Amino acid sequence: MEFLAGNIESADNPFEKTVWDSLCTIFEPYEGILGYKIPSLGFKENEIPSFIVRSKSFGILILDLVTEKVIEFDEDNEFWKTTDEEYIYSRDLSLNIYSKELENSLKKNPTLFNIRTEQWNDDIVISKILMFADNTDEEIAELESSNGNPLVNSRWLLDDLSTELNQIISSGDISLSESTIDLIDSVLEGSNIFSKVIRKKVVAAPSNMNEFIKKSLDYTFKLDKTQRQVALQIPSGPQRIRGLAGTGKTVILCMKAAIAHKTLTDYGIDHKILFVFNTQSMYNQVKAAITEYYFNIAKAMPNWNNLHVFHAWGGSNKPGVYYNTANAAGARVLNFMNVKGSENPLDAVYSDLINTAKDKIVPYYDMVLIDEAQDFSPAFFETIFYLTKPVDSDPTHRKIIWAYDEFQSLTELKIAQPEELFGKRSNGIPNMPNSVLEGSYKGNIDKDFVLPNSYRNPRINLLVAHGLALGLYSKDSKVPMDDRGDWIARGYQVNSPATQKFVEGDFVHVERPEKYSKNVLERLLRDADSPEAKLVDFKKFDRVGTELTEVVSKIENLINVQKVEPEEIIVIDLDKKNSQRNFEYIRQQLDIKNIKAITPGYIESTDSFKEPGFVTLSTAFRAKGNEANVVFIINTQRVINDLTARMRNAIFVSITRSRGWCYLSGNGRGTDELEEEITQIVKDSPAFKFIFPNEAQIQRKLVIIQSTKNVEKADKEIDALLSDDTFRALLIEKIAQNPELVKDIAGLNKTEQNGD
């Protein structure tokens, strides 16, 4: 049984906790889900039944606990009088209303219910039980007889709980199908609103790429077990969520924000919640997801005065965390022009805020949810720490929930720990020690979650993205993870070696199981023996002009022949220096073919992305946080030519934007090597097989990758020195006079001679 304790700890009702513990013990051996006060179905917190169980063998069981002692039913049995002389609405009637609402929600799905025959298509049974915590059976019977209105639902006493439940379990004689269970669960958790249900009839035998995409997207979105555990439960303190791009982190955070907002609103608690992110184009996506889920569970719109959705920066015309915080603290407010020369402008403004005004930052938010946490520096996290109210007397106990995209950067193969992120007090003690993520909160709510399932990318796309990012099949750019646990956390199984840590010379064989790849497009294409089954394709060209012309031609074919919507096509250029010129050419040529395009950040606003009817032209950085059915990546030769490995990060981000096809292309020097890497990755898929490289090689590359210095500029300057005979001779003389450097070069040559 899967247990969802929700906010049972914050509710602080001893009767409910006692019953919860008993229910967990009784149901533990059985398959299903047991939840506390979920789903809400638009009801207020005090109207939601206490517990709900979903089982394959006995269906849905709703249990409501009456914790007050009831001393009188009114004449209509509509209101009950309690020992404190208060009248409460009949829990018997509210349980019935809730049950009917749940039944109606399930009946809206034609797969579950036949509206013509008014019959369930599967054996769906909904049972209701009312439990009295402080009344005897005789007292309830007397109250019923006093007005002649008996209870509608079955009643139990707590003493009878175990006996009665075991009878229900043992008498269960239905067997719900897995598809029915998926649909029921999606309604119970409210995730059905995120389903990709195509309103037009899906073609049984797709004939073009658009039809294959539609068929792959026509499914009921249901949280997997890990997602459900993290999305539907609100922790009482810090929590970290990790997962690859496309594992559902943004949706999970949006659900948590909506659930927390509704719960606090229902309890009448004045509160402030912040949802913060880095990619500006995500603003509409996040706000829409929160609104949709909140309306589904509350039947009302969110109160945006209490729930803030902000970009990390902001400005005079647009609210944002930095701008609002600096203003409130009376600190100087820097804009982009003030820090545009910095290696990381966002870090620069937050570092300035921390250095000049951290003592003036007043805790304002009760809860903060951080998406795209991998994009933020420690100065940002420290600012968030000071902005968040302590939950209790422990200053480290703050309700901050941050979600990382694993592997968005080679600089973060080892994830940063709380002590590195949230700053230190004046005495040097960390604001948030690493121990805050150890173990779980009451109700078995984990403090640190890893999401292994990828919903966005087909498996081959993810393998090519990882293989290129880590340089696993490159000649001299291998930067593989050396820890078994790091591979497992990213959804791989390690076949060899058997050790926890990998060392030079180890034969590494890791595999990505199909069960962790939830995108079904690859399977649909394979089963149909489609000519479009090649989801990752690489082409090389002599020059960039030919490459761009081919991209334009392919886009025209996708739209006119394969019927792909223009907004489901993204073109990403890895050549940032020339991207504006390249995009102008592509846009002009598409316009001639009557195909419209947008270039966010160049002509259109940075918030513009995937506008209906428009192809999107973007850099890798601006594409982060977005996705599309078809992604083109041009000028990929820069991956091979770039010794800083920044381009390996960029191509990983770019490939992982694709829900379907990914077309890579390059021109000139480096394309042969890149083609060889991709070919080998595809050949070995769904696994990686390589010899673990020399540790010194890895560390040398990591020093370059992790440097905050302008290594691209230094790389160009070194190239300039080597191209001049005089400077080249001088450089050799300098090297010759440095024994340690000569030793390092000799060691490098020795490694290469050994065939690595």
From TrEMBL:
<dbReference type="Pfam" id="PF13538">
    <property type="entry name" value="UvrD_C_2"/>
</dbReference>
<dbReference type="InterPro" id="IPR000212">
    <property type="entry name" value="DNA_helicase_UvrD/REP"/>
</dbReference>
<dbReference type="InterPro" id="IPR027417">
    <property type="entry name" value="P-loop_NTPase"/>
</dbReference>
<protein>
    <recommendedName>
        <fullName>DNA 3'-5' helicase II</fullName>
    </recommendedName>
</protein>
<feature type="domain" description="UvrD-like helicase C-terminal">
    <location>
        <begin position="615"/>
        <end position="664"/>
    </location>
</feature>
<dbReference type="InterPro" id="IPR027785">
    <property type="entry name" value="UvrD-like_helicase_C"/>
</dbReference>
